[in-house]
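Q&A log
Question type: sequence-to-structure
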Amino acid sequence: MEPADVARYPFLEASRDHVKARGISMSAISSDEFRVVHQFARQRLLDAVDGSGRPEMERPGDVEALILSYPLSRFIVSAIRDRNLVKWFSHREAEVAADNLENEGLEAMLSIGAEVGLKAYPPPVEKRIEPPMVLKGVRPSGDDLIERDRRSYWVRMTDYLSARSHITGQEWDLSNQRLVNGYIELNRRRYIRLVQELIKTRIESGLEPGPDIPSHGAIRDIALEIKARVDTRRKEYRPISMGAVTITRIPPCMRQALGMTQAGENLPHHARFALVAFLNAIGMGPEEIFKVFATSPDFKEDIVRYQIDHIRGSSSGTEYRVPGCETMKSTGICFNPDSLCEKDWMNSPYTYYRVKGKKKGGYIGR
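Response status: OK
Response body:
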């Protein structure tokens, strides 16, 4: 693997071997001789916290500096010992890798996919072609893709289930996939999306709490700066407390969505839309709604503000209503329904909230 390839995919075994072959210790990297490495590591971590940009290579020698900045960044993340930073870092690194994979040749893309756990196989022999039962609006095969991306990639069902375990959305349900003799058919876009998730898992799995932040030197300064930025993001965008009484009125689907955001997980598009519309409907202001999403790994301030303003009608001129229960079910985001959800007359999360508020400690049956 060429150095430039190592720099693009620093989580691969070849990249680790490349760094190991250099024989450079972490204490050596801390010296002023590796100042460019420090700069790249600092930028990687700032990008992870802020959700933007990527390290750039400006001079030929910077390829090696960029390679070394990855293990240094991991060292600093482990030293800071912050769960959200771990998720932000792994998400950002996987996102950049997926962007690179979009432009890779077929052989390189499949090789990287295989290493992280999603090997592609030749099309299985089938006696009969039976496309999956796909609900309205769900198109796993990606009918709108360009010709290059119409190629099929067949992966083992077990590998597929493992890769998609943290991806929600009905289009990813096993029942909506083309399954032949234990293999699932993917197009290029969906294959790369699954590889991205496996890359994120690989990066995150090795980021256990590490040694303390160095007591002096450039690495200490970077670590303290990043830690301060993490704390600042928490303070500026601290999710609001909705209060014990209000929480009891929130339907299970919205409690699940809120819990996912507060745990630092990304919400699927439909769930994010429904949550914003719901919080807006119950009277939460745009700034309060904005703070709910601030800990998500894919958080980007300008995009989140645009989405909130659009759904609230501030920028679109149309205030979107809370999706009904049938829509929540059809999009795969009706989480943990309780006995009130099962009432024949229950038609939306907002109805649930209003009914729960009719009587302190419970609802009035009909």
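Response note: The chain is about 50% helix and 5% strand.
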